[in-house]
């Protein structure tokens, strides 16, 4: 009959094997949080150094197209819209890099949570984790390079090498996810034995705070999206058409003042749309992030007081960013500065939690190493 | 596994698969055509203005408005089905931490799944009809999502002690 000590020891060994060095769960947790951090930092750098300059170029090429129409130069209109398309592609690939890095980070954390339910060998899970992470990095890097590589030396007429590598990365992620899903299906169709996972059994106060706070942020983000759809979406869509109509009719009537007025209105409208969509999306994404890292609090090896502080910092930052983004239209750069501070708080809290998880892995590895050395010493003495 | 958890987990996976399948179909068969249509109609409107052809310009802008209206909604449907699917899966993982009765939790899970299915469906229906029914479906779906999320947030906040799996 198993003693209490042996059962406890087995449970401990199982937990350690779940989070073993280079094990699937450890790889997915550490790189998942890392990908989210890199994605957020990339988003910040992109916003500061590329987004606004690119928006100005898009505005300038639209203005040039309108002025070409005013001058009656149809070929210049087409050339300027071609330029607008190129600027939008540059912007689109940067946004996709940011979004996919963070999205794959979220997916890595979700896959890390379900590892005990995946009925595959640890070696197979580890191989799938490497496949997922390689693809999860290859896709955003490939997407980032699309604008710079173009069609150079490409074997295909319409798709360049960067796109081919990005697609290959996407395929690797898809295959890894299918592999994990197959493991889950195997588990549920098998003996049906319940899985005891220490990670999910633990319900400390910090984890509860992050779960409740995260879900509140998701709810607020959703409520804001619903309000925007009801109050502003149709008005904005009508305004988009009306302003462009005014721009083209002013060009046809050779009214330079009318074009300038319409261009100003169009810029204002795009700003209004952008801040509303950004506030809605960031509130929901940060809420989901807080919920996901809430599950991993038992792995954050920091003092309880510090774990709580970093959770509070994450929730405050997550609420501050979307709220201040919404206020940007009224208070301009001041609100923008507070929004950036909110984003920085989220990055700092996430970095602190990532360091906490690293410390946890260090303590696990040190304990295992001590046990091995102790065993060797005892063996030598005998 | 409790019924509420099962609804969230299976419903979440189903929504994510639905959103990804729809997105794949859209990207391969519809998106490029839609973007080409938006770009061409906008460029056509200004080219017509350059040629002082107000009627052609107006016609192109109307085409632009319709194409943009459909494109925005089709992309939103893809994003919202996948996003809500992920949210349902995350909630399923932590659902035993919602401090409410199993009956209430099953009700909230059902309402959330239905809302997450209907809200993007209503948005998608708007691309086919500008009538009241698609709007009603989208509004009803989003109301279900918000009510169920509010109930679950309360349940998470009430959870103080560890509960049995």
Set out the fold topology:
The complex is a heterodimer of chains A (382) and B (165).
Chain A: H1 4-18, H2 24-70, H3 74-114, H4 122-149, H5 161-189, H6 198-201, H7 205-252, H8 256-295, H9 304-331, H10 333-381
Helix pairs in contact in A: 2-3, 2-4, 2-7, 2-8, 2-10, 3-4, 3-8, 4-5, 7-8, 7-9, 8-9, 9-10
Chain B: H1 3-50, H2 54-93, H3 102-125, H4 132-158
What does this molecule look like?
The complex is a heterodimer of chains A (382) and B (165). Chain A is mostly helical and 382 residues long. Chain A folds into two domains: 18-189; 204-375. Helix content of chain A is 86%, strand content 0%. Chain A has ten helices and no strands. In chain A, helix 2 packs antiparallel against helix 10 (333-381), helix 3 packs parallel to helix 8 and helix 7 (205-252) runs antiparallel to helix 8 (256-295). The longest helix of chain A is centred in the C-terminal third of the chain and has 49 residues, at 333-381. Residues 1-13 of chain A have low confidence and may be disordered. Chain B has four helices and no strands. The longest helix of chain B is centred in the first third of the chain and has 48 residues, at 3-50. With 165 residues, chain B is mostly helical. Chain B has helices at 3-50, 54-93, 102-125, 132-158. Chain B has a domain at 3-28 and 76-157. In chain B, helix 2 runs antiparallel to helix 3. Chain B is elongated, with a radius of gyration of 21 Å. The mean pLDDT of chain B is 89. The interface between A and B is large, with 51 and 48 residues.
